[in-house]
Known about the structure:
This protein has helices at residues 92-101, 108-119; strands at 29-32, 60-66, 72-79, 83-88, 122-126, 132-134, 150-151, 157-160, 176-179, 185-187, 201-206, 212-219, 222-229, 234-240, 245-247, 253-255, 260-267, 270-277, 282-288, 297-298, 304-306, 311-318, 321-328, 333-338, 345-349, 355-363, 369-379, 382-393, 401-404, 410-421, 424-437. It is mainly β. The protein has one domain (29-437): 7 Propeller (Methylamine Dehydrogenase, Chain H), CATH 2.130.10. The strands form 7 sheets. Strands 1, 20, 21, 22, 23 and 24 form a 6-stranded mixed beta sheet that branches. The two termini are 42 Å apart. The model is unreliable at 1-49 (pLDDT under 50). InterPro entries: 6-blade_b-propeller_TolB-like.
Amino acid sequence: xxxxxxxxxxxxxxxxxxxxxxxxxxxxxxxxxxxxxxxxxxxxxxxxxxxxxxxxxxxxxxxxxxxxxxxxxxxxxxxxxxxxxxxxxxxxxxxxxxxxxxxxxxxxxxxxxxxxxxxxxxxxxxxxxxxxxxxxxxxxxxxxxxxxxxxxxxxxxxxxxxxxxxxxxxxxxxxxxxxxxxxxxxxxxxxxxxxxxxxxxxxxxxxxxxxxxxxxxxxxxxxxxxxxxxxxxxxxxxxxxxxxxxxxxxxxxxxxxxxxxxxxxxxxxxxxxxxxxxxxxxxxxxxxxxxxxxxxxxxxxxxxxxxxxxxxxxxxxxxxxxxxxxxxxxxxxxxxxxxxxxxxxxxxxxxxxxxxxxxxxxxxxxxxxxxxxxxxxxxxxxxxxxxxxxxxxxxxxxxxxxxxxxxxxxxxxxxxxxxxxxxxxxxxxxxxxxxxxx
Length: 438
């Protein structure tokens, strides 16, 4: 048994994980929920909102669509329920016209210039007024050819890692946090451990409370779990005893508040998800993959930890079945809650951990691939009140992106309509929807 390492970041050192055998001292089993309830959709005016009532079935009570802003080429995320961060660049016709001016084939620098122009700079968009405001700083540019900035869960800060996939074009810029509220910058490379080089620190994302950045450090063959307390720019490193533990170099790292950090890895021959107590540096197993079957793994996709690890929502393979699972520690059970063709399921759990929106794709009679998006309540180890939110969304590989509101009642959903240009994928039109649940 191993943990699957999907190649989404070429700069990371990939550790071979084949040939591991997981030994688990307890009995676990898998069960599958078969849903029979018909989807319910109730659409009303966004201004006519009902009181939140957890006892009532999940319903959509309001839906709005914004599709009049042309050139939205990349969606970063939502700031509350009324603003979003996105790139605004060229329309399809302008993209094709610009491409026609270049001499073919494009060189590396021409390719970067072309992509930067097409995708455009970052903007903040007010969904109520459609006002568009540039997001910029005089110190560091947010270039589209670099990795996309990561918006904090509170919608106030952007983490920007200026890494370009073409190493020959990599430029010397620090990794930064940009505060959207006061337009200040923190250089998160400036205060790392002196024994570590910035290129050996791989930032994974934000803590759920938006106070910490977490990631993985690699030095001299060893591994460390790292945190950065953003407000104080305080870097902290916990070395992992490689004789006992290994961390999946491509796996997700999750934390609520920077004190308990969950990671995908293995101890000796037991693979699964572990928890690091930062203050004590103690590591314990919270979810062991079953010890039977050859293909059990957690995909390199963000999972969600609920109730301190008593439940975990993750994308993976259990006993040869790909899908979206809920692990419940009480019974050591793995419940498959959604299937997806090729196991391509994106999901977003609400801040209160009581709801989930997920997207799975399907093929039509012409073999075109589209997404269907569902919402449901999370109840123990199952889903209830599943409803169809949207269908025939964005031909794959375009992918919907969803942000929850802080009160867990609304989502902002981005649906890209794509086109290809000599194997390059661009967005022809980006539709933004606001959906309110009861």
